[in-house]
């Protein structure tokens, strides 16, 4: 059952280890935006999921935090931003802090006129392993390259450039684990 977090929910969280972790994350989420509520759901195996949404004029952001009693947590942030000239920029960030710490970010530039993806950027970082950044630019796109922050961070001297059969250009930048 999904509950809107209030003082009674916070009080009940104090009686379990995962609840105390959840109270810390609720405090962090509320510090970002106090006006929007935080929702909590208790899952199986002593796990709690928190949800927080924030909306503005041209932007909508949603944060989901999954916690367990051992202190492990997964954070997923989704952000949709409406840009000028009928473009939407979707950003998904996933952070995992249990076992092998990983960071995954995906940014997609979507043209709302012709319903096509013009730029797709994916970054994967394992704190114990490699870091890989892949940016794909569509052929015949209407926007200038790069629009996404990840696309702008491609280093031309390090990245490998490949042109696909359909005309799309793929930039791959990889830093191996040492």
Question: What is the structure about, briefly put?
Answer:
With 178 residues, the chain is of the alpha+beta class.
Largest sheet: 11 strands, antiparallel
| Share in helix | 10-25%
Radius of gyration: 20 Å
Number of helices: 3
Question: Could you report the average pLDDT, rounded to the nearest whole number?
Answer: 89
Order of helices and strands: EHHEEEEEEEEHEE
Silhouette = flat
Count of distinct strands: 11
Low-confidence stretches: none
Structural class: alpha+beta
Distance between the ends: 45 Å
Give me the side-by-side strand order of the main sheet.
1-2-3-4-5-6-7-8-9-11-10
Proportion of beta-strand residues: over 45%
Describe this structure in words.
This protein has 178 residues and is α+β, with helices and mostly antiparallel strands. It is built from three helices and eleven strands. It has helices spanning 7-13, 17-32, 149-152; strands at 2-4, 38-43, 47-55, 59-68, 73-83, 87-96, 102-111, 116-126, 131-137, 160-163, 169-175. Strands 1-2-3-4-5-6-7-8-9-11-10 form an eleven-stranded antiparallel beta sheet. A hairpin with a 3-residue loop joins strand 5 (73-83) and strand 6 (87-96). The radius of gyration is 20 Å and the shape is flat.
């Amino acid at each position: 059952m999904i509950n809107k977090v209030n003082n009674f929910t916070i009080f009940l969280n104090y009686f379990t280890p995962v609840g105390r972790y959840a109270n810390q994350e609720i405090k962090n989420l509320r510090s970002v935006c106090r006006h929007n509520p935080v929702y909590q759901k208790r899952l199986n195996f002593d796990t709690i999921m928190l949800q927080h949404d924030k909306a503005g004029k041209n932007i909508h952001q949603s944060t989901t935090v999954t916690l367990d009693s051992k202190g492990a947590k997964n954070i997923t942030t989704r952000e949709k931003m409406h840009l000028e000239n009928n473009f939407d920029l979707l950003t998904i960030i996933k952070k995992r802090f249990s076992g092998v710490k990983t960071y995954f970010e995906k940014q997609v530039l979507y043209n709302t006129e012709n319903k096509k993806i013009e730029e797709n950027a994916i970054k994967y970082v394992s704190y114990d392993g490699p870091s890989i950044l892949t940016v794909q630019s569509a052929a015949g796109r209407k926007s200038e390259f790069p629009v996404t922050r990840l696309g702008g961070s491609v280093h031309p001297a390090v990245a490998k450039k490949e042109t696909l059969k359909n005309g799309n250009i793929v930039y791959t930048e990889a830093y191996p684990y040492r």
